[in-house]
Design a protein that fits this description.
- This protein is α+β, with helices and mostly antiparallel strands.
- Helix content is about 25%, strand content about 15%.
- Helix 1 links the parallel strand 1 and strand 2.
- The protein is elongated.
- The termini are far apart.
């Protein structure tokens, strides 16, 4: 079963969720701002995604700077404390499938771990085509 730690206000998160659904799967959707993961779950998500704690933090549109979280002396434990106290600091979306865990930024990263292929064409909210009508990845112009 696929799980997405989702923020419905985030376009990247919405696009990721749509690609999961485009693979024919209805995932478990956790609105992590309303239902933050436990400390253990958050630490495991970060570790399983191959990230450091600081890499899993969102800076833009969060109290990151005001809380002084750019201080390199802060430990991973202190950073986790801040993320749990202010879930908006958790970067998104994290997706967990039988094939692995990823922080899906950009949203197409989810394609690496989806257990089922895309079922049809998919275009991101900004109009960028990602999947063609045959369910194949469109070559990125970036």
């Amino acid at each position: 079963m696929t799980t997405i730690y989702h923020n419905p206000a985030c376009g990247t998160s919405r696009n990721t969720l749509a690609m999961i659904r485009n693979s024919g799967e209805e995932p478990i959707v956790i609105d992590y701002l309303q239902h933050p993961p436990s400390r253990e779950t958050l630490a495991k998500l970060i570790q399983d995604a191959g990230l450091g704690v600081r890499e899993a933090m969102r800076q833009k549109g969060t109290p990151y700077a005001e809380l002084g979280l750019d201080n390199p002396a802060l430990t991973d434990e202190q950073l986790l404390d801040a993320m749990l106290a202010h879930p908006i600091l958790i970067n998104r979306p994290f997706v967990v499938t039988s094939k692995g865990t990823r922080l899906c930024r950009p949203s197409e990263v989810v394609l690496e771990i989806l257990p089922h292929p895309q079922q049809g064409a998919f275009t991101k909210e900004d109009g960028e085509a990602v999947i063609d009508a045959q369910g194949q990845r469109v070559a990125s112009g970036k």
